[in-house]
Write a structure and sequence with these properties.
This protein has two domains: about 80 residues; about 110 residues, Aldolase class I (TIM Barrel), CATH 3.20.20. About 40% of the residues lie in helices and about 20% in strands. It contains eight helices and eight strands. The longest helix has 16 residues. It starts with a helix and ends with a helix.
Length: about 230
């Protein structure tokens, strides 16, 4: 699919569900959207014409300073980094790669763009200690601009390898309490979901490459979360 085709698909979804553009926010997620640099930059440039806030959801491995600056100039306003684990050995076991490059790219991005860091809570693997170490690192960066640190739940039913179970609600709450001692903006969330306090009811449209789309509301996501308990 070309950039133009994808942008037209987004516009069609906006018309179908909201009757018009501009859109308040678009989240570019994956897979890993930074793999095709020119495509991503072109996509952001086109989206900027009718989207107020453009979010990039990435593992951050390729997002060095030059790449980040190019995306900011194109129109990216927020970057969500997925930091899978703090311990480098654990991260290599989990992903096959070191996390040092990702950590450095997060450090570099601070102050240049709205920064969000996501970690999936995986019971017995990425739990309290890993979460606390990441929160401590982010607290060392945090100065005037706040960093949103989001704790997402591991979903065993979606995992290709049964490495763990779904976390219990009290485990997530405990991790949240740990993060709250370090950072101003901890969030219990799900991937691509915006848990901001807003005055109006909000919804999201997921646009798929086959031309279909699906509208979801915050209530839908909360209902999904309850099913995991």
């Amino acid at each position: 699919m070309t950039v133009e085709q994808l942008v037209n698909l987004v516009k069609k979804a906006a018309r179908d569900y909201y009757d018009d553009t501009p859109l308040e926010e678009v989240v570019i997620t994956g897979g890993e959207p930074t793999l095709d640099r020119q495509y991503l930059v072109d996509l952001v440039l086109h989206l900027k014409e009718f989207v107020n806030w453009i979010v990039l959801d990435t593992n951050g491995y390729f997002l060095d300073d030059a790449y980040l600056q190019e995306l900011i100039e194109a129109g990216v306003t927020e970057v969500m980094f997925d930091l899978k684990a703090w311990d480098e050995t654990l991260h290599e076991w989990y992903t096959g790669c070191s996390n040092r490059r990702i950590v450095e790219n997060i450090r570099n991005a601070y102050g240049k763009v709205k920064l969000v860091v996501n970690t999936v809570f995986v019971p017995g693997i990425v739990d309290d200690r890993e979460i606390e170490n990441i929160a401590r690192f982010l607290a060392e960066l945090e100065d005037e601009a706040e960093i949103d640190y989001r704790i997402n739940r591991f979903r065993a039913e979606l995992s290709h390898e049964k490495i763990s179970r779904n976390p219990y609600p009290e485990e997530i709450e405990r991790a949240y309490s740990i993060v709250a001692t370090y950072l101003k903006s901890p969030v219990i969330g799900k991937s691509c979901v915006r848990e901001r306090k807003v005055e109006v009811t909000r919804g999201w449209i997921t646009v798929f490459p086959d031309g279909t789309s699906k509208r979801r509301t915050l209530d839908d996501y909360r209902a999904d979360n309850k099913k995991l308990r």
